[in-house]
Amino acid sequence: MKLPRRNFLHLAAGAAALPAVSRFAWAQAYPTRPVRMVVPFAAGGPADILARLMGQWLSERLGQPFVIENRPGGGGNIGTEAVVRAAPDGYTLLTCVTVNAVNATLYDKLNFNFILDIAPVASIARDPRRTGAGDVRHHVVVDRVREGWQTTRAGGDDRDTLAGAAGHPDGGRIRAGL
């Protein structure tokens, strides 16, 4: 079979262009339906407020509703497990906080592996208290001057109602007078 020169050049050009064309992916519209943002804590807390602000901002920009769903309990593990069990299609997001990573070391029998089962999408906030002992010493001075120990207490009495929360170790270090 004799291949005409013109056909040969067409095939050669197509073969040369194929690697470049295969790298282009046509982006699909996202989101095409409502997105569920799971907050593994009760409504009204810092994670919930942050999720609601981000959900509103994303809804305005992307044109689809971002529904905030609070799934409290188990130190955040119930909501986290609900996200792990959801379809991995990008329409169920988890609002993570420090305690989600800490729980992986605290609980022996979780029904999920936080590191392997959750894929990070974006970082939307940072906690300045987690930057080292020098900052904790600064907070001790500021707290003692301003309000005493009220920054580690809630409810107006002497009980520490934040016991077991992610900020609790900081409160313990502050009370110890670092």
Structural overview:
With 178 residues, the chain is mainly α. The chain has helices at residues 5-22, 46-62, 77-85, 98-106, 114-117, 133-146, 168-176; strands at 35-39, 66-70, 92-94. It folds into two domains: 35-117, D-Maltodextrin-Binding Protein, domain 2 (3-Layer(aba) Sandwich); 128-176, no CATH class. Strands 2-1-3 form a three-stranded parallel β-sheet. Helix 6 crosses helix 7 (168-176). The protein is elongated. Residues 148-164 have low confidence and may be disordered.
The total count of strands amounts to 3
Find the CATH topology of the largest domain.
D-Maltodextrin-Binding Protein, domain 2
Assess the beta-strand content as a share of residues. 5-15%
* Oligomeric state of the chains in view: single chain
Biggest β-sheet: strands ordered side by side in the sheet: 2-1-3
Write the layout of secondary structure elements.
Layout: H1 5-22, E1 35-39, H2 46-62, E2 66-70, H3 77-85, E3 92-94, H4 98-106, H5 114-117, H6 133-146, H7 168-176
Parallel strand pairs: 1-2, 1-3
Helix pairs in contact: 6-7
Name the descriptors.
178 residues; mainly alpha; D-Maltodextrin-Binding Protein, domain 2; 2 domains
In short:
Helix content is 45%, strand content 7%. It has 178 residues and is mainly alpha-helical.
